[in-house]
Amino acid sequence: MSIPTSTSVVESAVIKAPLAHVWHYIKLQDFSKFWSAVEKSEFVKGANEETDVVTWTFKDGQQVEVKQEEHSTINHYITYSVITAKPELTYTSVLSTVRCYPVTSGENEGSTFVEWTGNFSSDADAGVIQDAKFKRREALADLSKAATKK
């Protein structure tokens, strides 16, 4: 019997770099430039010209094809879905959003607040949600390191 669990995850961080420095990395094809778990990220050849599909190859050998569903340079967010994975995922689907906000006052003024959400299909179990939580935390820490380099 499986443990009932929420099928969403929200992780966030304050990155001590201006929004422009952080936003520069938030492109599906550039995740390997900051996320240490990703060996390479590259456009899928032969994909529909109107659709951005990128393969993320993780250092553990997993390959995930992600499709950009929505992107806003005005509101600073990108939404993507996983369309295929090798090995196959244990759940049907996930829709994720990375959103950046400028911090405009207080002790972190000039920094960027980054939120990374994931909404999973109802067949995702507690292990999937925990894994997503820790992967996002690791990626946000890596993003902070990349964006704050001089």
TrEMBL record:
It comes from the Eukaryota. InterPro entries: Polyketide_cyclase/dehydratase (IPR019587), START-like_dom_sf (IPR023393). PANTHER family: BLL4707 PROTEIN, SRPBCC FAMILY PROTEIN. This is Bet v1-like protein.
